[in-house]
Design a protein that fits this description.
This protein is an alpha/beta fold. The protein contains nine helices and 31 strands. Strands 3, 17, 20, 21, 22, 23, 25 and 26 form an eight-stranded mixed sheet that branches. The longest helix is centred in the first third of the chain and has 19 residues, at 23-41. It is elongated. Belongs to the MoeA family. InterPro entries: MoaB/Mog-like_dom_sf (IPR036425), MoaB/Mog_dom (IPR001453), MoeA-like (IPR038987), MoeA_C_domain_IV (IPR005111), MoeA_C_domain_IV_sf (IPR036688), MoeA_linker/N (IPR005110), MoeA_linker/N_sf (IPR036135).
Length: 563
C-alpha cells in the first residue's frame, strides 16, 4: 500500500516495486523478504518446500473481505469489546504458530455457494486489501502479496446459509442416549418416543366426590366413609343402591354413574338418595384407558422434558427417561483489557460476555463450565483448546486479524476445519465455526463486541446446540415490524425488537429498539426477540423473521408472542 511518503519497507529489506528487473532477481528478493519475516514471526510463511502453506494459497476458499462497514459496526483492533478504527485492515496475526503446523482445512460446506446465497453480496477484493510491505502482517487470503496479484475471494456465506451449516453440523453425528431419573431429566431432550407403560387411568375411577349409584333411583344407602382413593376393589353394587365415593377412588363393578354431592339430595330419615338432575349412564366416571392405552405413544422423540412431561411420564409408569446428554460447553474469554470487577479505568473495560454467556448457553440446553479468562496469549489458547473435553468451545474476541487476535492462527496450528469463516450479517460478521478434529469438539468464535457476540450465539451456537441436543428444527416465526428499519446494503441485520399487542383489533407487531450498536447491550436487555432484516432494510408493515430469545416465553411482557 502506498501513501504520501512512498512505499512502506520491511525492516532490513530493500523492497522495490516491480519494475524492469528480471524475474529471477525479483523472486530472490521476495524470498529474502519472506525469510526475514519468518525469522521475526517464528514461522515460514513462504509455502515453499518444507514451509507452512500460506493462507493465501488455501484452495478451499477462505472467507475474504466483508461488505462495507456500518458506521457503528467496527470491531476492536483485537476483535473484542470496544470500538475499532474503520480503516484498520483485518490482517492476520504475524505469529500463528510453529512452521510445520498444518493449515486450517476448509469445509466443503463453506464454498462454493450458489447464486442465491451470494445474491445480496459482491466481491470487493482490491489491491487495498493487501498487507502493506513493512506492516509486519502476512497477506490476507485473496489479498495480493508484495509483487503478486490478488486471488478472487469468495464472499462470506449468507446469514441463512451459515445457520443451515451450523444446524447440519449439530445433526451430523450419532445421537447418544442416557437414562436419567425423573428428578434430573428436566430440560433434556427425549432420545426416544415415550410409550405408555400402562392404561391411563389403569382402572375405572370417580371423577368427582359424590355417590356411586347402580340402576334407576331413588337409591338406598348406608351411612359410612364410603369408597376412598387408594383402596382396593369394592364389592359390586346392586341395582337401586348407592355408596359414597371420593375423587380418584375405584368405581365398584356394575356402577351406572357417579352423582356429584351438590347434585344429590339425601333423605336421612328414609335412607334414600335422590338426584336433583337427570342421571346419564357413565357420567363423572373416568373409564380405564380414557387417556391412553398401554403402548400408545405419549410424546415423540425430540421433545424437551418440561415439568408437564415429567408428570405425564410418572403417571404412565416411568421412573427414568431416555434422553440426549446435554452438550458440554467451555467458555473462553480472551482479552488483556477485561476487568472482572469494579469500574472501567486506565483503558480497561468490564467483561460483559463472561457473565452473560453461561446463563444464555444453559437456556439453550447446554451444560456450561465456568468461564475461563485467558487474556491475549496464543499459547494459553492453544493449551485450552487441546485440553478441553467439551462438545463445544465458545471463545469471545480474537476472531478478527489484529495484532493479538490469535483464534485463526491457533486453529491453523491445530489443523482445524473451518465450516464458517465470517458471515454476511451485521453486527457480528467476523464470527466463525470450526471443528478441531473429525471426532473433536466444535468451536464457535464470537466477536468481542457484546451485541455482535449475541448475533454469533443466535446465528451459529443456537442451531449447532439444538442439533447436538437432539432438538428438532423449529419453523421460522414471522411478525409485522412497526417501523421502517434501515438495512445494510449487502448483509443481513439482526435488530433487537419488543412485542407490541395490536390496538382496536389490529395485528400484533414488533417494534425495533434503540441502542442496537455492536458494542451495546441496552437494546437486547429490553428485547424479547431479534428481527432478521434483509439487505436494504424493510418498510413499516413488512413481515420479518423473528429470532426468539431463550427466556422470552417466560417473561410477562411478551404476552405469548414468541412462544
Amino acid at each position: 500500500m502506498t501513501g504520501s511518503d512512498g512505499p512502506h519497507r520491511e525492516p532490513g529489506s530493500d523492497f522495490r516495486p516491480a519494475g524492469p528487473a528480471s524475474d529471477r532477481a525479483r523472486e530472490e528478493e521476495e524470498r529474502a523478504v519472506e525469510q526475514a519475516l519468518a525469522l521475526v514471526g517464528g514461522s515460514d510463511r513462504t509455502g515453499g518446500p518444507g514451509g507452512r502453506p500460506s493462507r493465501s494459497q488455501d484452495t478451499q476458499g477462505l472467507q475474504g473481505p466483508q461488505a462495507p462497514r456500518d458506521p457503528q459496526d467496527h470491531q476492536g483492533p483485537r476483535g473484542h469489546q470496544g470500538s475499532r478504527d474503520p480503516h484498520d485492515p483485518r490482517d492476520e496475526n504475524p505469529n500463528p504458530g510453529p512452521s510445520n503446523a498444518p493449515h486450517t482445512r476448509r469445509s466443503g460446506d463453506s464454498a462454493p455457494y450458489n447464486d442465491r446465497d451470494n445474491a445480496p453480496h459482491d466481491d470487493r477484493t482490491t489491491a487495498a486489501n493487501a498487507s502493506a510491505p513493512g506492516s509486519g502482517q502476512p497477506p490476507h487470503p485473496g489479498r495480493p502479496s508484495p509483487g503478486g496479484t490478488a486471488k478472487p475471494t469468495p464472499t462470506p456465506p449468507s446469514w441463512e446459509r451459515a445457520r443451515a451449516i451450523a444446524a447440519r453440523a449439530g445433526r451430523g453425528g450419532p445421537t447418544a442416549t442416557i437414562r436419567l431419573p425423573l428428578d434430573r431429566a428436566l430440560g433434556h431432550v427425549l432420545a426416544e418416543a415415550l410409550g405408555a407403560l400402562t392404561d391411563l387411568p389403569s382402572f375405572d375411577t370417580s371423577a368427582m366426590d359424590g355417590w356411586a349409584v347402580a340402576g334407576p333411583g331413588p337409591w338406598a344407602f348406608e351411612t359410612g366413609a364410603g369408597l376412598l382413593a387408594g383402596r382396593g376393589a369394592a364389592a359390586a353394587l346392586a341395582d337401586g343402591t348407592a355408596v359414597p365415593i371420593a375423587t380418584g377412588a375405584r368405581v365398584p363393578p356394575d356402577t351406572t354413574a357417579v352423582i356429584r354431592s351438590e347434585h344429590a339430595h339425601v333423605d336421612v330419615a328414609r335412607g334414600l338418595l335422590h338426584a336433583r338432575r337427570s342421571v346419564v349412564t357413565g357420567q363423572d366416571i373416568r373409564p380405564r384407558g380414557q387417556e391412553c392405552r398401554s403402548g400408545e405413544q405419549l410424546v415423540p422423540a425430540g421433545t424437551v422434558v418440561t415439568p408437564a412431561v415429567l408428570g405425564l411420564a410418572a403417571a404412565a409408569g416411568y421412573d427414568a427417561l431416555p434422553v440426549v446428554p446435554r452438550p458440554r460447553v467451555d467458555v473462553l474469554v480472551l482479552g488483556d483489557e477485561l476487568l472482572n470487577a469494579g469500574l472501567p479505568h486506565d483503558g480497561l473495560i468490564r467483561d460483559a460476555l463472561g457473565p452473560m454467556l453461561g446463563p444464555w448457553l444453559r437456556a439453550l440446553g447446554a451444560e456450561v463450565s465456568g468461564p475461563r479468562r485467558l487474556g491475549d496469549d496464543a499459547g494459553d489458547l492453544h493449551s485450552a483448546l487441546t485440553s478441553s473435553d467439551a462438545d463445544l468451545i465458545v471463545t469471545t474476541g480474537g476472531t478478527a486479524a489484529g495484532p493479538v487476535d490469535h483464534v485463526h492462527p491457533v486453529l491453523d496450528a491445530l489443523g482445524a476445519e473451518l465450516l464458517v469463516d465470517g458471515v454476511a450479517v451485521r453486527p457480528g460478521h467476523p464470527m466463525l465455526l470450526a471443528r478441531l478434529a473429525p471426532d473433536g469438539p466444535y468451536l464457535v468464535g464470537l466477536p468481542g463486541n457484546p451485541l455482535a457476540a449475541v448475533s454469533g450465539l443466535l446465528t451459529l451456537a443456537e442451531p449447532l446446540l439444538a442439533g447436538l441436543a437432539g432438538r428438532p428444527a423449529q419453523d421460522p416465526y414471522r411478525a409485522l415490524v412497526h417501523a421502517e428499519v434501515h438495512g445494510h446494503p449487502h448483509d443481513t441485520r439482526l435488530v433487537p425488537v419488543v412485542h407490541r399487542p395490536g390496538r382496536a383489533g389490529g395485528r400484533d407487531h414488533v417494534a425495533p429498539l434503540r441502542y442496537n450498536g455492536p458494542a451495546m447491550l441496552r437494546g437486547i436487555a429490553a428485547a424479547d426477540g431479534l428481527a432478521v432484516v434483509p439487505p436494504g432494510g424493510v418498510r413499516s408493515g413488512t413481515e420479518v423473521e423473528i429470532l426468539d430469545l431463550p427466556w422470552a416465553p417466560a417473561t410477562p411482557w411478551t404476552e405469548g408472542c414468541f412462544t
